[in-house]
Design goal:
two-stranded antiparallel ribbon, about 140 residues, globular, mainly alpha, single chain
């Protein structure tokens, strides 16, 4: 049987370090990407997709975005995870109207998603297109 170290998996006790930036992928609240559940990562990805298409980022819109990929998403599961992401400072919650909340990613969450995409692309032998208009840093 393999242990996590033999497969190179990184858990919460060993923060992920980006080979390109040599920075830990951690939100302002001290929560690392590895601390999140797969569902929470999917929620962040869904919010980012809605941001990119300039759509409303209400809980219902996030639910629909997730259901396109995963099938039925239970109301309680979604909103409890959104609250945890707000507490971890990955998401900012704001009021859209009297009964609808909107959700926006923090800059640190966007950076973590981008770094994760780069690491996944690198693992698959792919390149991530520049999103800075072609400017070099």
């Amino acid at each position: 049987m393999y242990d996590d170290n033999s497969r190179g998996l990184e858990g919460p006790e060993r923060p992920v370090v980006s080979p390109e930036t040599d920075q830990r992928i951690i939100a302002d609240g001290g929560t690392s990407w590895a601390d999140l559940t797969g569902f929470q990562r999917d929620v962040l990805t869904a919010i980012r997709q809605l941001e990119r298409t300039d759509e409303t980022r209400s809980g219902q819109a996030i639910k629909y975005e997730l259901e396109d990929q995963q099938g039925e998403v239970l109301h309680g599961r979604l909103y409890s995870n959104l609250d945890e992401l707000v507490d971890a400072e990955f998401v900012v919650k704001s009021e859209i109207d009297g009964r609808t909340n909107g959700y926006t990613l923090t800059e640190s969450a966007r950076a973590m998603l981008e770094e994760s995409a780069k690491r996944l692309a690198n693992a698959c032998g792919m390149q991530v297109a520049a999103t800075d208009g072609g400017r070099s840093e």
